[in-house]
Design brief:
Structural class: alpha/beta
Shape: globular
Largest sheet: 11 strands, mixed
CATH architecture of one domain: Alpha-Beta Complex
Number of strands: 11
Radius of gyration: 21 Å
Number of helices: 17
């Protein structure tokens, strides 16, 4: 099975390359920052870690599969001693006091972090333009957006600046940029990987997600990061997914897709035609394909943003310059809070905080927020029924191809609607993987909760089918 991680591991073991040379090569590529993917480089720690790997190999000691593998981290994860900015003015000088659980597991396995990666500020965006570090440029066409909010992470993987990267997915923030840059991006089942140390956007849908160039590398990284964490009560113990288990897709008999995603004026004709062609290729392999009914895209987007804005307004209330961030003094404490937040939050972040406070306010919470919660339950129930009829669901990742840099900033509503095909699966807390096949921005594969293995299994099958 294709795997950059296994290939590099073997080269290290065979002494065809040194870890120091590998890490230095990647750091040199990242230092050019031609696509605005870099918030900060972890040069000293990366080179020290690489030397330790080289010393182990020179002494004849065994190294683990991830040991010496260079990777990137979206700049919303705590890594002790590093600046963690969330691509925001407010936290531009904030140093992490501890390390996120998911990242610590990768460090314990010997993987070497090279870079804190550019993203939409606090994860607020679908283009990685809402950032103090400049808009992330698409790996295939630098005039287009890199996608968001994990744009820097996806572009670095696509350009081979990192072997894999760790993004964060709330409503599609791993899957959409993965699709825009033709790589794999996974949003696992909610709770499979600890969120401890990930800056909270919308706590009920936030997920830690790997981005890589192969199904096998996604599997390897997912296994390392998964597991119950006493610091995150939403986590659960999960079985390891073996390489052999992905070799056969015989257990997948039926595939579903949502009719209203395809029979929709919002979808680009080419995306629609390519998706339907992919369906025919799947049918040709003897798999039954069923058209399913689902909620309208506008309902999904409005439900997601109602809840996500409410949660981010609550989560970001702690950022007032008192305990964290770039404090701006004013005449009194109340004014200090107001000026600090007004001057340091991006326009998109302020838009989401205002929207969140609105739906949570007296007189609106019953009418809007509680209705959003009820719709989320209805969406989850719909998924439960769907997965009684089909094994997996496939869908386009986005209704359209990546926009030009600057276009999304002019039209925030269009940016929200670009998430139409990703947010439903987030509300359902389902495992969903973007694969770089089928349409210009890839396909999504989704399975029932805790069936992450089935998603990877079908992705492996699609490699030779589409």
């Amino acid at each position: 099975m294709d795997s950059q991680i296994r290939s590099i591991h073997q080269q290290l073991v065979n002494k065809d390359i040194t870890c120091t040379a590998l890490v230095q090569e990647k750091l040199d590529l990242l230092a050019k920052n031609s696509h605005n993917t870099v918030n900060s480089l972890l040069i000293d720690t990366a080179l020290k870690a690489a030397k330790k790997v080289d010393d182990k190999i020179a002494n004849g000691e065994e190294i683990g599969l991830l040991e010496g593998i260079p990777f990137g981290i979206k700049d919303v994860y705590m890594v002790q001693g590093t600046v963690t900015t969330a691509s925001s003015k407010l936290l531009k000088d904030y140093k992490s006091a501890y390390t996120a659980t998911a990242i610590q597991k990768l460090l314990d396995a010997g993987a070497i972090p090279l870079v804190k990666e550019n993203c939409d500020s606090f994860g607020h965006g679908s283009s990685s333009e809402n950032t103090i570090f400049g808009a992330v440029k698409n790996a295939k066409n630098p005039e287009l957006v890199g996608g968001g909010s994990s744009g820097g992470s996806a572009v670095n993987v696509a350009l081979d600046y990192t072997v894999f990267s760790i993004g964060g997915d709330t409503g599609g923030s791993v899957r959409q940029p993965a699709g825009y840059n033709h790589v794999y991006g996974l949003k696992p089942t909610y709770g499979r990987i600890s969120r401890y140390g990930l800056m909270a956007y919308a706590s009920s849908t936030d997920c830690v997600g790997p981005i890589a160039k192969s199904v096998e590398d996604i599997r390897i990284v997912l296994n390392v990061m998964s597991g119950k964490d006493t610091k995150d009560q939403t986590t659960y113990a999960s079985a390891e997914i073996s390489e052999d288990s992905l070799a056969s897709s015989d257990s997948i008999k039926t595939v579903g897709y949502f009719k209203n995603f395809i029979e929709n004026d919002a979808i680009a004709p080419k995306v629609k035609a390519d998706f339907l062609a992919a369906i025919e290729k799947i049918k040709a392999k003897g798999i039954e394909v069923k058209a399913l009914d689902f909620f309208e895209s506008n309902t999904l987007v409005s439900t997601y943003y109602t809840l996500a804005m409410a949660e981010t307004a609550s989560n970001l209330s702690r950022l007032d310059g008192t305990n964290y961030g770039n404090r701006i003094e004013a005449e009194n404490l109340k004014e200090t809070y107001a000026v600090t937040r007004s001057e340091n939050f991006s326009e998109e972040t302020k838009r989401r905080i205002v929207g969140g406070n609105q739906v949570l306010s007296q007189g609106f919470s019953d009418e809007i927020y509680l209705k959003g919660l009820a719709l989320r339950d209805a969406i989850s129930n719909n998924f439960e029924e769907d997965f009684k009829a089909v094994d997996v669901i496939i869908s386009p990742v986005t209704p359209n191809t990546p926009p030009k840099i600057g276009d999304s900033l002019k039209d925030p509503l269009a940016m929200y609607l670009s998430d139409a095909y990703t947010v439903g699966f987030s509300l359902g807390q389902l495992p969903t993987l973007t694969v770089p096949q089928g349409t210009e921005t890839g396909l999504q594969i989704t399975a029932a909760k805790n069936n992450d293995e089935l998603v990877l299994k079908f992705a492996n099958f699609l490699k030779d089918t589409i």
